[in-house]
Write a structure and sequence with these properties.
The chain is an alpha/beta fold and 436 residues long. The protein is built from 16 helices and ten strands. A six-stranded mixed beta sheet has the order 2-1-3-7-9-10, with helices on both faces. Strand 4 and strand 5 form a beta hairpin. Helix 7 runs antiparallel to helix 8 (226-240).
């Protein structure tokens, strides 16, 4: 079977098929390709019901979630969460990190009210009544509890970002102090604060705080190590606040980390990789050849050709010529004669009334009965005529039928043809008589 003949069997609607597959394959984080898993929990509390409401934390959390998503993070986002919701999400976050393994990168982001008391930091849920310092343990979420959840995963890299301490709504409460206390970063952890310990961060005059605005812009810069990136954020915030707010950080990282690698693959490269993962998993020769036709110079092309050989011939050692090469080499197949062979233009006599009395030549100009590719949207094939969807010449159909003969009747009937099983059997019989 020649390579060109193989190509002629493939659907002309390759673009529609690949577009459908690509739509399934490209994820939210299509901008990155890396072995490490990245998981982020993003919380923004603004609509406080008892304490003073804030303008920007919900917007900040959404901006951060969107930015992290483009950088390959699986993002869990909470807006205006109460204590039970926050604690449940943080516990699940810790479990996800533990399940991810040592190479997983964890990131926790919080925007909203937060206070310190006796050296401990507390994130404040939206429904929190605090009459004295003792209430903080009951209604708040302690910062160290978040760190313990992340540290328990024993992963190599964790990042904690706190855009909090916008003001102190509890100034009249005992030992509650302004700003946040500095927390020691456990090994492998980077902690950053919107402002220096004991100081107040600005909510900002626009949709987002000065800190989160600078952070979202800095994260997407390619090739900048995390330490340098946060220095850039510090400079930007100082400039935006006329020196009134200085972001602060504490690090015990043991591995280099960059939010966006310097040599990040393009969106097209990432989409191609995701598509190849989906196509190669099917081992379907039609989908594999469609991939080769659309990406002949792909780094996966050699593997695709090998899988085509395995799928069509069951012999991985037989090479399929690359596009542009001489396709004269033929693959020898034993074709057993099948009684009752048909002619290409002669009527078929079948139990299936949809094809009985019509010839192969006529049937291939009709509409498919089943999807040509599993998962393809109905609009891409239903009601369309095969005369416009396929390159089904007599020679191409003969090659297709001979492939079925080589497989045998049982394997031939194990998977439906787009035009139905009875038509597939007719091709089998016709090719068994050498395609008269």
């Amino acid at each position: 079977m020649r390579w060109l003949a193989l190509k002629s069997k493939v659907f002309r609607c390759a673009g529609a098929v690949l577009a459908a597959l690509a739509g399934l394959a490209v994820l939210a984080h299509a901008g990155t390709a890396r072995a490490e898993q990245r998981i982020a929990l993003v919380i923004g509390n603004a609509a406080y019901e008892i304490n003073p409401a804030l303008d920007n934390p919900a917007h900040d959390a959404r901006l951060m979630a969107e930015t992290l998503g483009t950088l390959g993070f699986e993002v869990i986002q909470l807006i205006d969460a109460d204590q039970a919701t926050m604690k449940d999400a943080i516990a699940n976050f810790g479990r996800s990190l533990r399940a991810g393994g040592p190479d997983t990168v964890g990131l926790f982001y919080y925007a909203g009210h937060a206070v310190q008391a006796k050296g401990n930091n507390y994130l404040i849920p939206i429904r929190s009544t605090i009459r004295d310092e003792a209430d903080l343990d009951l209604v708040g979420v302690e910062g160290r509890w978040v760190l313990r959840q992340m540290e328990s995963a024993r992963n190599i890299t964790n990042i904690v970002i706190l855009d909090a301490c916008r003001d102190n709504p509890f100034a009249a409460v005992g030992a509650v102090e302004q700003g946040l206390a500095r927390m020691d970063a456990p090994t492998g952890t980077f902690i950053t604060y919107a402002t220096a310990p004991g100081r107040v961060a600005f909510d900002g005059t626009g949709m987002n705080s000065p800190f989160t605005t600078a952070l979202a812009q800095a994260m997407i810069q390619p090739g900048v190590p995390i330490e340098q990136m946060f220095k850039d954020v510090r400079v930007a915030v100082l400039d935006a606040t006329n020196g009134a707010q200085t972001p602060w950080d504490s690090s015990s990282l043991v591995r280099d980390f960059t939010f966006r690698p310097a040599e990040m693959p393009s969106a097209e490269e990432t989409a191609q990789r995701r598509l190849w993962e989906a196509v190669s998993a099917t081992r379907d020769p039609v989908q594999l050849v469609l991939f080769l036709r659309n990406y002949p110079d792909s780094p996966y092309a050699d593997e695709a050709r090998s899988l085509v050989n395995e799928a069509l011939l069951g012999v991985s050692a037989v090479p399929v010529p690359a596009p542009g090469e001489d396709g004269a080499a033929e693959v020898e197949t034993e074709v057993a004669a099948v009684p009752g062979a048909l002619g290409f233009s002669l009527p078929i006599f079948s139990d299936d009334p949809s094809i009985s009395g019509r010839s192969i030549e006529q049937i291939v100009k009709g509409s498919p009965k089943f999807t040509p590719v599993e998962g393809l949207d109905d609009a891409a094939w239903k009601g369309q005529t095969c005369s416009t969807c396929h390159q089904w010449t007599k020679d191409a159909l003969c090659d297709q039928g001979k492939f079925y003969v080589a497989q045998g009747v049982e394997r031939t009937q194990s998977k439906l043809h787009p035009l139905g099983g009875a038509f597939k059997l007719a091709l089998f019989e016709w090719a068994g008589a050498d395609c008269p």
